[in-house]
Amino acid sequence: MSTDLTVLLVVAAVLAAATLAVAVALLVRLVRTRRALRRAGLPVERQWVFWAAIAYLVLPADLVPDPVYLDDIGVLLLALRSMRSASDGPSAPRG
Fold it and tell me: Which of 19, 32, 34, 81 has its CB 3.0 to 4.6 Å from that of 69, i.e. a possible disulfide?
């Protein structure tokens, strides 16, 4: 195998591992946010967002192939943002 191909494969593996680590970190943060909202007594109005994000992460059908977790990261970030905005409630100031 050529040196260039070896370097390319190593870089691709490192990038795939880094994006997977970010996706897992966001998943953990999403689960912790959901638990914190439940413990605080706030109704989680958008529970379907949480479960849809989890399902999208673990199901094999993705918009982008799984070695690149950018779509999974995007879905997890949107779910986290949606759950945070639901906890703010309608009376919270926007900005």
Answer: 19
Sign of the Cα torsion 14, 16, 17, 23 reads positive
At residue 94 the predicted structure's pLDDT band, cuts being 50, 70 and 90, is: very low
CA distance 9 to 15: 10
> Which domain does 11 fall in, by range?
3-62
Output the pTM of the full model: 0.55
The whole-angstrom separation of Cα 28 and Cα 41 is 20
In a domain, 46, yes or no: yes
